[in-house]
What does this fold into?
Amino acid sequence: MLGIRCAGLVKRYGDVVAVAGLDLAVELGECFGLLGPNGAGKTTTIEILEGLTSPDAGEVEVLSVPWADREGAGGRALQERLGIQLQETQLADKLTVEETVRLFASLYRRSHSVDEVLRLVDLEDKRRSWVSKLSGGQKQRLSVACALVSQPELLFLDEPTTGLDPHSRRELWEVIGRFRKAGGTVLLTTHYMEEAERLCDRVAIMDHGRVIALGSPPSLVATLGAEHVVEFALADGAAAGLFTADLAALPGVRAVRTGPERTALTVTEVHRTVPALLALLERRGAALSLLTTHHATLEDVFVSLTGRQLRDA
Amino acid sequence: MRDHPLGQLTLARMREFYREPEAIFWVFGFPIVLAFALGIAFRNRGPGELRVGVARGPGDSSIAAVLDHSPALAARVLDPAEARAALRAGRIALLVAPGEPVVYRYDSTRTESRLARLEVDEVLQRARGRTDPAAVRDERVTEPGSRYIDFLIPGLLGMNLMGSGLWGVGFAVVQARSKKLLKRLMATPMRRSDYLLSFILSRLVFLVVEIAALVGFGWVMFRVGIRGSVTALALVTVLGALSFAGLGMLVASRARTVEAVSGLMNLVMLPMWILSGTFFSYARFPDAMQPFVRALPLTALNDSLRAVMIDGVSLAALGVPLAIVAAWGLASFSVALRIFRWR
It folds into this structure.
């Protein structure tokens, strides 16, 4: 049995195609990430799977329940098994943490006790605080608490850590980790590469409503053919593209990508490429204004596939 | 033990309401402040002393003295310019110009001025020796329920039922929609009927407090009683509250923003504030408008409330207005259900 299966999923809003024929298969017990820039169709996809938006075409099965069975009582029975956190929901300001969780718990036939859920998301000491008094990270954990309260088999998280500081982000990752340890299945969307690499067993990289790459984070990074990225920019702004062929010939270089400001080399061995690069630039009389190296990430995968940066794509 | 979803939804509704100080003021405080202010301003002391002016001229002070001597009049000698301004601004009801003949200058469309005309003429004619051909005797009565405050309190009750029904339901629904809280709830197994019922239930709970506060205030402050049965009053108010909750649901059924729904609610309420006889009798509107005015839910509710509180009429005699109130509620609720935007 699959957690989620969809095939040929299409959703249009007027002339805009938000989801353009999407295929997905999420195994039970796995944490699956939808990764992509804003407007890639991640939220539309997850809201269709949650049952909040109806698809224009394609097949959708969540926990083996097909879309057609989600009307009325069948839909309610499925919702009992799902935990959902929406990107934009603001919970009622004037209710306390405890009252909010209790309200959500009452809507499900089977639920955790308030204490259990607050322990899960580490909000026990805030139980009597009004929602309006919580920090961004605490609000987000409360939102996840409302998703976890029904003891769901499948948890949907839509950009759970957007706008949070690094500390709050890590706290939320721990909450998700605990849910997974207990055997839960997670589908999350994010545009943070680090988050996807840390949390997800597999990710689907989305762009313009389609999956453009699919696999585990290490295997996707491996498709770059090298583990490191060297980026540089020239002081006088001169285009390094003039000698792309020279760059490609440097030892250890697998790929060269020239952008308007920076040039990026995908390399296997930084310690061999960098001295050769410096020597080449010196021969050409070009001065560096920037030189950085980092481990290749999903971000680099996205850039190599689309030629755009994730953040500003 | 598992909490009942309807119970929890209703509790959430009530908490959100009573934790909002502004809401408390507008629902409970404002009608009482209004009743107090209007009750004081229009308390029954009769027309009181009528202010009249005497234009400067030969014999002005003796005329003023005669007029001022009457308990119903307060007279002053004024310069011509001053007198004109006072008459225009309504500071005096009538201006007496001494001479032969004596001239009364006043606006005959003003009730107060016509009273002053009668009173002044009476006093002046008597002072010059007129005698009454027939003997008469005055017998003064105060009919309970005939004061302005007796008229006002039921009207304020009706207005309050309308305001809190529309705001309490409409505003909360649209706020939940605009904050995507409604969408979040739709992602749970919650029954839609539970969601809507929670609004109705919380309205009924607050209704008891609202009515008790205003009726209690009317009694303690102005001795405004309830002539009919308390049960009848309770049933009329419950029906009114349900009807306006339905109207609130309708107003809120599509709106996405709080601004939009506020505009819609004012659009619905404003005509009724003016037309439905809350502060003054709607009989003042022309005959051609009467069928329209009477078809408004607040008019029918105010009529029913006054009939029970002032005249002690039984429910059975209120079939038509109560049917109008119920019909508005049912119609708006069923339309609202059809067109309600759940996400």
